[in-house]
Amino acid sequence: MPQIDRYKKRDVYVEFNAVEDFTRLPYPERYTLILITSGSMKGILNERPIAISAPGVLCLAEGDKVQILEKLNVAAQSFRFHPEFLNTITLAETEEYFPSVPRIQTGLSLFHRDLHTGVPRVTEKAYPLLFEWFFVLGTEVQAQSDALWVCRIKKYLIQMMGLLEELSRNSEQSPVDAVLDYIHTNYSRKISLEDLTNHVHLNRVTLNKKFQERCGTTAIGYLLSYRLKVASDLLTHTDMNLNEIARVAGFEYDTYFIKQFTARKGISPTKYRTISRNFATVQ
Q1: Global pTM value
Q2: pLDDT class for 128, splitting at 50, 70, 90?
Q3: How far is it, in rounded angstroms, from Cα 183 to Cα 81?
Q4: How far apart are the first and last CA of the chain?
Q5: What is the C-alpha separation between 274 and 257, in angstroms, rounded?
Q6: For labeling, which of 108, 115, 156, 269 is most exposed (least CB within 10 Å)?
Q7: Helix and strand counts by DSSP (H, E) for the chain
């Protein structure tokens, strides 16, 4: 059942299970993220065998066919959301809902079986972040701590799915992959080129050469682009202010964020938000 937003008197199509028992999968009209915190399990997803050991994640879409064959000391929790949840824009000034054609792409490939198996890669360094974000999702669904609880859910869901998508995309552990994992996991923190070179034990010339060959940019150039990608999603799909978005995306100051965003996108963050939301309302 959807949540009733007690602040804005609307239905919010998300649910959270603190204890997922795997008996009702998949959930109708929902994308489902299941975080497995202990134990292991085996099953069949769309006629393909799957095996997950904690820490792990299972991503399910409405049309998936899943059969759980074996569970060993499994503990898991799940978060479910309607496919259009992230593409529903709330304008704070009017408190009206504007549904749009699904446009956000961050993380949605996790639910496309032609691209992913439904079991994204989870690294040791990524797990604490995923666990923290899942905790926030569950807390906000249950507590609705203030009028911005839906906005916070969108924020953490976007970050979580983006991280899982990038971890799955970069499964080969070359030095560049290791740095990509580091960036996708730590982008909200202060990161220097020295941090990246120390992480893979390469000098800056070698690392940047490998990054240029693989990604068409330097390591720090990629970091900036990724931070701006996260910021763009948050501008479009949440009501967070610029200072909050800057901090979440890894920019130390909102003035630097605005400067970099405008230089790279050719438009200010505020104008980008207005245009992207107006575009959504006419779809």
Answers
A1: 0.74
A2: very high
A3: 27
A4: 27
A5: 17
A6: 115
A7: 9, 9
Whether the CB-CB separation of 79 and 134 falls below 8 Å is answered with yes
Closest CA relative to residue 163, chosen from 207, 208, 127, 217 = 127
Closest CA to 248 of 256, 239, 240: 240
Please state, in angstroms and rounded to a whole number, the distance separating the CA atoms of residues 283 and 280.
5
DSSP H or E stretch at residue 64:
none
Contacts of 208 (CB under 8 A, 6+ apart): 218, 219
Phi and psi torsions of 66, nearest 5°: -125, 140
Structure confidence at residue 214 (pLDDT): 82
Query: Tell me, what's the pLDDT at 172?
Result: 55
Q: Quick check: helix, strand or coil at residue 231?
A: helix
Opening angle at CA 251, ends 14 and 123, nearest 5: 55
- β-strand partners of 41: 52, 71
- φ, ψ of residue 95 to 5 degrees: the values are 55, 35
- Going by C-alpha positions, the residue among 48, 47, 53, 46 that lies closest to residue 70 is 53
The predicted structure's pLDDT at residue 115: 63
CB 36 within 8 A of CB 54: yes
pLDDT at 102 over 50: no
Q: Quick check: bond before 2 cis, omega within 30?
A: no
Confidence of residue 275 (pLDDT cuts 50, 70, 90): confident
Residue 90 has pLDDT above 90, yes or no: no
pLDDT of 133-163, one tens digit each? Answer: 999 999 999 999 999 999 999 999 999 999 9
Would you list the DSSP string of 256-272?
Answer: HHHHHHHHHHSS-HHHH
Tokens coding 49: 């065998």
The confidence score (pLDDT) of residue 171 equals 59
Domains contained in the chain, CATH given: 1-169 (2.60.120.280), 171-283 (1.10.10.60)
